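re the bet — no i am not wrong, look at it urself. input seq straight from the record:
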Amino acid sequence: MQYTKIRNLREDSDMTQKDVATLLKVQRSTYTMWELGDVNFPITKIIQLAEIFETNVEYLLGLSNNKQAVHYRKRVDYIYVGNSLRNERIKRGKTQKEFADCIGVRQSSYSYYEEGKTKIPTDKLVFLAKEYHLSLNQVCGEIKEDIFAI
């Protein structure tokens, strides 16, 4: 999966891959592999990028053309993402096996994703989002603006 929107935003911001890698606290070569899609881009780093580029996860992953910035909860990790996936799956009345079959993994592997024991690959998250109309912004800890209203 190539991340052309991420590359375009980086270039539009006159940033080098090294600049972005420094902000993400990774090596430039690691970031380059992520951006090119040679290695799966971790969702936690995509959340950071959404904040850096003042946009949202769904836009960066090519699920939406809406560039509007979204605020995410601090310290979103794979346990949080897994719990969000579990809630979305249950809300849709689906089993772990159905979600696992959808992304081509065993039910036991999918169970580990929901428990946060194993990092769910971003490309599999994107596939689930497309198949089940999941909001990855919500799965990744989107904070609704009305929370800030007094």
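see?? The first strand starts at residue 71 and ends at 72. told u. also The first helix runs from residue 4 to 12. so pay up
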